[in-house]
């Protein structure tokens, strides 16, 4: 179950410990690279869910779009509201989205960095119906979720002699949030997501973090920062190979309302 208190405790340090880290910046830049073609239009109505501290919502609003953004964490929303008044932030659990935004039609619903990995397949299937009602005709559902076969994670933990942990994304796993809290997480392949979001037409998937490592390897990357240009080059060269989507740290997936 998704617990707001777990994320409340992360709010004040989230930007420092992820958003503005080298890995956080590199991965977010890749997401924005893939997202850009879908927002190169006149003013759109955008809903970002699990918006965290509002970095993406702020970026989208700066592009001239009307942005609504929600998160289950009151503290995350409080931090986000300090950054801008241009975005309509509010606290909302996934199960509350349909009611909270009843009567509105969005051109894009966007979820970044694994927020939807915090709920199980049954809950995602319910969101399939909710998203369908909230999206305008031909509206886009754009998700950034954890890759189910992350190459980095498998290699890292195998080299550490913990193959079981290296394969943890194959089933339910506990993600560490800060120093104390944990959150159950569920990973989905692109094919599984297509089955879950059956009301939508699958458009594309792309790897995010095929060569950029997971955020828990930030200290390692700092020690070997001279290879960052090479990592960025490889990430760019392999960016449009959908085959590698499930093998990256995150997967960028696009669906369209039928």
List the helices and strands and how they pair.
Elements: H1 4-8, H2 11-19, H3 22-35, E1 45-49, H4 55-62, E2 66-71, H5 74-83, E3 88-91, H6 97-100, E4 106-111, H7 121-134, E5 135-146, H8 151-159, H9 163-166, E6 173-177, E7 181-185, H10 190-196, E8 200-208, H11 218-223, H12 228-237, E9 250-257
Parallel strand pairs: 1-2, 1-4, 2-3, 4-5
Antiparallel strand pairs: 5-9, 6-7, 8-9
Word description of this protein:
This protein is of the alpha/beta class and 258 residues long. It has a single domain (4-149, 186-257), classed as Vaccinia Virus protein VP39 (Rossmann fold), CATH 3.40.50. 39% of the residues lie in helices and 23% in strands. It is built from 12 helices and 9 strands. It has helices at residues 4-8, 11-19, 22-35, 55-62, 74-83, 97-100, 121-134, 151-159, 163-166, 190-196, 218-223, 228-237; strands at 45-49, 66-71, 88-91, 106-111, 135-146, 173-177, 181-185, 200-208, 250-257. Strands 3-2-1-4-5-9-8 form a 7-stranded mixed sheet, sandwiched between helices. Helix 4 (55-62) links the parallel strand 1 and strand 2. The longest helix is centred in the N-terminal third of the chain and has 14 residues, at 22-35. The protein is globular, with a radius of gyration of 17 Å. The protein starts with a helix and ends with a strand. The model has no long low-confidence stretch (mean pLDDT 95).
């Amino acid at each position: 179950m998704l617990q707001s208190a777990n994320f409340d405790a992360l709010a004040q340090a989230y930007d420092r410990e992820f958003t503005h880290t080298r890995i956080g910046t590199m991965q977010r830049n890749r997401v924005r690279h893939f997202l850009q073609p879908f927002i190169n239009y006149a003013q759109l109505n955008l809903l970002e869910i699990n918006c965290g501290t509002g970095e993406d919502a702020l970026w989208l609003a700066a592009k001239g779009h009307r942005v609504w953004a929600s998160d289950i964490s009151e503290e995350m929303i409080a931090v986000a509201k300090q950054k801008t008044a241009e975005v309509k932030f509010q606290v909302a659990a996934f199960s509350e989205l349909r009611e909270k935004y009843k009567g509105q039609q969005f051109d894009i619903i966007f979820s970044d960095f694994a927020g939807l990995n915090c709920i199980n397949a049954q809950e995602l299937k319910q969101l399939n119906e909710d998203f369908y009602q909230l999206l305008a005709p031909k509206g886009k559902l754009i998700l950034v979720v954890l890759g189910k076969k992350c190459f980095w994670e498998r290699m890292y933990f195998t080299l550490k002699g913990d193959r079981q942990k290296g394969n943890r994304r194959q089933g339910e796993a506990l993600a560490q949030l800060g120093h104390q809290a944990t959150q159950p997480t569920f990973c989905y392949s692109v094919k599984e997501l297509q089955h879950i979001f059956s009301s939508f037409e699958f458009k594309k998937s792309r790897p995010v973090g095929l060569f950029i490592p997971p955020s828990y390897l930030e200290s390692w990357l700092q020690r070997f920062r001279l290879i960052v240009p090479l990592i960025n080059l490889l990430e760019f060269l392999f960016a449009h190979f959908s085959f590698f989507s499930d093998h990256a740290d995150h997967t960028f997936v696009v669906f369209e309302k039928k």
